[in-house]
Amino acid sequence: MPKQINVALIGNPNTGKTSVFNALTGLNQKVGNYPGITVDKKEGICKLPRGVKAHIIDLPGTYSLNASSLDENVVIELLLNKNDKDFPDVAVVVSDVENLKRNLLLYTQIKDLEIPTILVINMSDRMEYKGIQLDIPYLEKELLTKIALISTRKNKGIDQLKALIANYKELSITPCLNASEIDNTYFDKLRKAFPNQLLYKLWLVITQDVNFGKIDRNQIDAIDSFKTKSKADLKRLQQKETIKRYQFINNTLKKGQTIDLSSAKDLRIKLDRILTHKVWGYLIFFTILILMFQAVYDWATYPTDFIDESFASLADWVKDTLPDGAFTNLLAEGIIAGIGGIMVFIPPIAFLFLFIALLEESGYMSRVVFLMDRIMRRFGLSGKSVVPLISGNACAIPAVMAARNIESWKERLITILVTPFTTCSARLPVYVIIIGLVIPEGSFLGLSYKALTLMALYIIGFLTAIFSAYILNKILKIKSKSYFVIEMPSYKIPLFKNVALTVIEKTKTFVFEAGKIILAISIVLWFLASYGPGEQFNNAETIVRTENASLSEVDLDDKIAAHKLEHSYIGIIGKAIEPAIKPLGYDWKIGIGLVTSFAAREVFVGTLATIYSVGSAGDNEDTIKSKMAAEVHRNGEKVFTLASGISLLLFYAFAMQCMSTLAIVKRETNSWKWPMLQLASMTIIAYLAALIAFQFLK
Predict the structure, then answer these.
(1) Which of 49, 257, 571, 647 has its CA 20 to 30 A from that of 169?
(2) How far is CA 359 from CA 136, 395, 424, 484, in A?
(3) Average pLDDT over residues 534-552
């Protein structure tokens, strides 16, 4: 069997690298983290001609090998370490046909590492539109490589790229230019001191503070002839290297690339004037948000109700079909209720990810980041803080990790601390079920009250994050300066395959990551709710029948089930915390949901689904929503009213309620001080907001 080829996919941000990765791997991909660091590691398998398989690694986007962030450092360290299991047999550098000059800087640097390198020129379908012509044979000759001219949108050139990867051994590993000419004396000394090492690798070790092999920066500094180079001298040499590379690139493109500006039909400038306008830009963004939340509610309603009813029917069928006993109860009330609590929220979460993916794929998200920078600066945040804040609408964990691209430590820390206020997808299950219960039907200006409530919660979260950032900016005495720079990609019609893969990958992550927690907790909850200590639980039937002799058999069964639940282990826990949450309008069952949802916010609904399933001896075909709607206090008043519902919505809007986010904040700040401060402050804010809302509305 032919060995598997390791392929590193490398490129600048916004070159379509992810599209190339998706075109090569399809659904044969997975996302993890690089060992020891919170940087995404995307990898997949691609089938090549003659039965060969390629292991494709999609490396973080980088503009050059002069690293300025943790993401870019990952690229350098992999390319320097031949002992790494992922060290590439061939590097595929993805460039954008509209930004070829800038993209080729990274390409020439990788060529200096003497790794077989293929140049991919993506978005070739835009060449005629932009008036661009390329002399591919000339470019291949000058750049000493093979070029794949592709269009992932039109699915052109992918087979050629696969063939080039399969024949990577035929590629030249000769560098394009001699970068050591920037200081011949210095590099000659370096070459003589380490004759068995690649010169450009040594240069990267000196300038980037990274290690490879048995040589590190200290060994080089220990040699007297290299001590004369200060950090400022090395910085100037880096600048000279960049200039020399661009001189080579300019000379190459003079003959290899022709751009006829008269034939370009670019609407980008006109669109940017509207979408980033100081008035219209915000109105357009606000309108898009309204439509997005309206669609999430309207489109998700039908599949959500179908899934909810299907699992209720399945649980009822299991109870009717299988013999009575602990196993049947566990299956119907624990496992099926737990899985139902996961599956019922796939539609709204999938639609939310769909819209976020469409905004990113179209290039509009970058305009939003630029637009919001005007506001962010006033509150002590960087324009780059908008990326984590917007990403927080999907999940706070990758959003917190995204803050590492902010150079200023103060701005980065503030962004990390306030990002969990933004409404993540884990809150969406809670919002959907509570809004459906307590917000009345009806509409305002054609928009349903429920969609408007959902949008209001997202806005409240974002505004709280901004206000908290302003307070922290005043409190934290950390001096720092930063500058906001963002690239505006070209507008594109979203590629269906990329959007679909993003939605599938993100939804799959929710189901398997959050789902494991929800299901495990559902089973534990079933046990705690099905068993209890003492006479009140063990003799529940006798006690209830003695006190309620006049009730019908069905009503007695319900009373017995409710009595058992109240005196079960879970009931005892709920009763213990009930005094603290009663002023918020919650009963002990909701209290259990609050406690368990600290593992993950979305566990709240699964918890209530399990508790109400165990606590009901009546028709098990009732859905989660109908069981919650029917729940009453001892005095006969409904548990879920407008007052208690709004209180609960506000509690979840502000509370941390996510141990995974706390863990990632600790990892990113390298201290337990900040996550503990975050947990305490957000819990206090959530409690006070919920208390005021309930007391005012009741």
Answers:
(1) 257
(2) 33, 16, 17, 21
(3) 79
How far apart, in whole angstroms, are the C-alpha atoms of residue 606 and residue 515?
10
Q: DSSP for 488-519, please give it.
A: -PPP-PPPHHHHHHHHHHHHHHIIIIIHHHHH
Residues 17/58, Cβ–Cβ less than 8 Å? yes
pLDDT digits (tens, 9 = 90+) for 223-258: 545 545 677 888 888 889 889 999 999 999 999 888
pLDDT digits (tens, 9 = 90+) for 601-648: 766 776 776 666 655 544 444 566 777 777 777 777 887 888 999 999
Q: For residue 134, which phi and psi values (nearest 5 degrees)?
A: -125, 140
The domain defined by 4-170 folds into Rossmann fold (3.40.50)
CA triple 641-642-647, angle to 5 deg: 100
Please tell me the pTM assigned to this model.
0.61
Q: Closest Cα partner for 143 from 238, 251, 10, 62?
A: 251
Q: How far is 605 from 423, CA to CA, in rounded Å? A: 17
**Distance separating the N- and C-terminal Cα atoms of the chain:** 72
Instruction: Give the phi and the psi of residue 638 in degrees, each rounded to 5.
Output: -65, 140
CA torsion 295-301-307-313 (nearest 10°) is 180
Q: Please tell me the distance from the alpha carbon of residue 443 to that of residue 452, in angstroms, as a whole number.
A: 9
Burial code (b: 16+ CB inside 10 Å, e: under 16) for 295-308 equals ebbeebeebbeebb
CB atoms within 10 A of CB 377: 13
399 neighbors 388 (Cβ within 8 angstroms):
yes
Q: Are 135 and 256 in contact (CB under 8 A)?
A: yes
Q: Are 408 and 436 in contact (CB under 8 A)?
A: no
pLDDT bracket for residue 190 (50, 70, 90): confident
Question: CB count, 10 Å around CB of 684?
Answer: 12
Tell me, what's the pLDDT at 62?
Answer: 86
31-62 burial: b if 16+ Cβ within 10 Å, else e: eeebeeebbebbbbebebeeebebbbbbbbbb
How distant is the alpha carbon of residue 301 from its chain centre? Answer: 24
Give counts: helices (H), strands (E), the chain: 33, 11
Cα separation of 6 and 56, whole Å? Answer: 6
Q: Is the pLDDT of residue 487 over 70?
A: no
Whole-angstrom distance, CA of residue 282 vs CA of residue 287: 9
* Residue 358 one-letter amino acid: L
Q: What does DSSP assign to residue 59? A: P
| Contact (Cβ atoms closer than 8 angstroms) between residue 10 and residue 106 | yes
The pairing of beta strand 132-134 with beta strand 146-149: unpaired
Length of the chain: 698
Half-sphere exposure of 462 (CA within 13 A, CB side): 20
Q: How far is CA 84 from CA 54, 78, 171, 213, 432, in A?
A: 16, 7, 22, 11, 46
Token pair 């020891």: residue: 36
Q: Tell me the C-alpha distance between 44 and 642, whole Å.
A: 48
606: its two tokens: 């699964």
534: which 2 tokens?
Answer: 């003492």
pLDDT digits (tens, 9 = 90+) for 32-49: 544 444 456 788 898 888
Q: Are the C-beta atoms of 358 and 499 separated by less than 8 Å? A: yes
Per-domain boundaries in the chain: 4-170, 179-263, 280-367+375-426+440-475
Q: H/E element holding 20?
A: helix 17-25
